[in-house]
Amino acid sequence: MAKILKVADIDRCIGCYSCMLACARTIRKSFSPSRASLQIRTAGGFQSRFVAEICRGCDNAPCALACKYGALLVREGGGVKFKEDKCVGCGECVEACIIDVLHLDEDKKKSMPCIQCGTCVRFCPHEVLAMEVSTNE
Predict the structure, then answer these.
(1) How many CA atoms lie within 13 A of 87 on its CB side?
(2) In 10 A of CB 83, how many CB atoms?
(3) What start and end residues bound the annotated signal peptide (predicted)?
């Protein structure tokens, strides 16, 4: 059964960015949190809470359907599989993302999709994130 990344309890988030650093380091081989597939940001204001910009693991993911090069493939149960060697950095997938969480790595000129691996969940010390069984199956 496929699992999809979910925000379990955003109120527990303290903005430590451990999830972002783990994703960037493990998946993108970078020490920059800006290279993570998820982003934790403040909602704004002086004493604001945090928001998690994460892939929702769309069923028949529009980003994958927009990829003409086979770099993004629809994943059974929701989300995508990524074949980085096929990505040409055209940005069509970024434009197709219906929730605006997919970005291009400006240095590598490649897409940075969430592959629903759960690395961010394992490194979140406050149980803000969770991997849940997909209801898209």
Answers:
(1) 22
(2) 13
(3) none
CA distances, 51 to each of 39, 94, 117 (Å) = 8, 20, 20
Q: How far apart are CA 125 and CA 112, in angstroms?
A: 24
- Which DSSP category does 11 fall into? G
Residue boundaries of the structural domains of the chain: 3-133
Domain 3-133: give its CATH architecture: 2-Layer Sandwich (3.30)
Predicted TM-score (pTM) of this structure: 0.90
Summarize pLDDT for 65-109 with one digit per residue, the tens. Answer: 999 999 999 999 999 999 999 999 999 999 999 999 999 998 899
Within 10 A of 79 (CB to CB), how many other CB atoms are there? 28
